[in-house]
Prior knowledge:
Blueprint: H1 9-15, E1 19-20, E2 23-24, H2 25-38, H3 41-77, H4 84-99, H5 102-116, H6 123-140, H7 147-161, H8 169-183, H9 185-228, H10 233-237, H11 244-258, H12 260-271, H13 278-284, H14 286-289, H15 296-306, H16 311-314, E3 325-326, E4 330-341, E5 344-355, H17 359-380, H18 386-402, H19 410-424, E6 430-431, E7 435-439, E8 442-446, E9 452-453, H20 454-460, H21 466-488, E10 490-492, E11 500-502, E12 508-510, E13 516-518, H22 523-535, H23 538-548, H24 552-556, H25 559-572, H26 585-611, H27 622-641, H28 647-683
Parallel strand pairs: 6-12
Antiparallel strand pairs: 1-2, 3-4, 4-5, 5-8, 7-8, 9-11, 10-13, 11-12
Helix pairs in contact: 3-4, 4-8, 9-17, 11-12, 11-13, 17-18, 21-28, 22-23, 22-26, 23-25, 26-27
Amino acid sequence: xxxxxxxxxxxxxxxxxxxxxxxxxxxxxxxxxxxxxxxxxxxxxxxxxxxxxxxxxxxxxxxxxxxxxxxxxxxxxxxxxxxxxxxxxxxxxxxxxxxxxxxxxxxxxxxxxxxxxxxxxxxxxxxxxxxxxxxxxxxxxxxxxxxxxxxxxxxxxxxxxxxxxxxxxxxxxxxxxxxxxxxxxxxxxxxxxxxxxxxxxxxxxxxxxxxxxxxxxxxxxxxxxxxxxxxxxxxxxxxxxxxxxxxxxxxxxxxxxxxxxxxxxxxxxxxxxxxxxxxxxxxxxxxxxxxxxxxxxxxxxxxxxxxxxxxxxxxxxxxxxxxxxxxxxxxxxxxxxxxxxxxxxxxxxxxxxxxxxxxxxxxxxxxxxxxxxxxxxxxxxxxxxxxxxxxxxxxxxxxxxxxxxxxxxxxxxxxxxxxxxxxxxxxxxxxxxxxxxxxxxxxxxxxxxxxxxxxxxxxxxxxxxxxxxxxxxxxxxxxxxxxxxxxxxxxxxxxxxxxxxxxxxxxxxxxxxxxxxxxxxxxxxxxxxxxxxxxxxxxxxxxxxxxxxxxxxxxxxxxxxxxxxxxxxxxxxxxxxxxxxxxxxxxxxxxxxxxxxxxxxxxxxxxxxxxxxxxxxxxxxxxxxxxxxxxxxxxxxxxxxxxxxxxxxxxxxxxxxxxxxxxxxxxxxxxxxxxxxxxxxxxx
Length: 684
């Protein structure tokens, strides 16, 4: 019966408080205390230290791991191509670092666990496989294999498996990866080198784009400065029309702010300053001598571009803050450089000419500014008669500006100066400084320690000595120009007084050879034009201007309109046609009757008609425009040398100098031949 049923002893004990499965709670607590006492505390401390050191080593190795990738990354990112040996060495170093990482130890332990529980193949499965293979070989061998051979094999196998422990999964994967990479190393090297080439190309393209964006930014700054210079127009218009001094000062400030192209144009005007009011002439002469010098940073930049060095590393005693002269193209400095003379190293003084930065952009932006002003003027002053005039003027300005580009090239200037220096060695009355070196934006040449500008010498000479000096220097100047024009058919493009120096013996030195005029193929048109302008022959003028224009065929079709405009201009200039021919007295009597003022009017007509042809709708070729500029500068320079002398005396001296040219050249040629003959005799 259920009521008389006996309870099991275990069940009874479980119901008694303080007992569990037959063991009292007191006994269980005592057992736990005994087990705690039995724990080895030193061992626990040692294991804890080992775990902490392992964690620290793992963290430190992980931090250092990116450093192992650095050699490979450097090979990939460097610009130079790489070789297979370089890549193999860098990869070996990388994998060595990966093998020694604590993760390899962890991988090895984890792999051992997997092998121990036969989750992956282990040594036992490998040994069983080898036993199976041995049995298969021995059983299937057509020749009985001696037992001794089999035993030796197993001895070898036991020695083999007694080697260091097996690698972990990570190490095996590293081995596989390294083997694959080693196989593909040639392909990787080729791909990396091709990638470098593409990257260099893209980098070059990107650099070019960046440079172009910088050019655009620089152009905007130039235009901003030039447009800002327009502010001088208002105060100029507010001056008294007869106050030439104030007007000239305002124009000088505006030209300086506009930049090199306008300074060049001011120099062209300054070459004809004798035809202008004295106040304006005085202000314009500044542009023939000195303009604002280059900044020290600009000079340093020029040296870094040309030499890759600072100025003081190339020359001694070069003070970049104190130029001797400054022009629109660059600044001139005095320096010293070492040279060997008679086996001894000495310092000699030299002239260092440094080109301004970004000149090409300055000229182009100035031309653009002029064109924009001319175009915008059609908005502010709309008139049907002005439109063709302004359009022609814009084209003529662009053509004229193009002629200045030669002066921006220092390499071309060096070649020209060297060519004329060699020519001057055969002359006894004019010289060109010797060029020593030219590189990039820097030219180095001979220092003329005893020479001064003709302007300075004219000012310093006593009044009683000036006539003799003017006569001598004027004759040498005329003969030098004629020798260049007739013998070499090439002459100085800007021979104003600032580019002529004279030593204590009256010897001429011609400097600043940035541009020359080549007369090859131009004689017929130039001669016809000069004859027409000087004699007032309208037909000769019309034909010569059409021949010198950029579109001669189109201009020939409107010759009648051009001739009428030229006749009207000459009439306004009060230039009458000379009657007769140069070899008859009537011609010279009429010229004498006009006096110096008449000669000046005719010389002005030579320059005016050629430079203002946009009024006629004619665009004259750049070469002829700069020929006019050069001839005007020469004529103005000769008149400047002969300053404070009467027109009759100037005319007489000029005619006498022209007559003495042929005998002098003949004498110099004969003397040169005699000198060469004597040299040959002494050599023998």
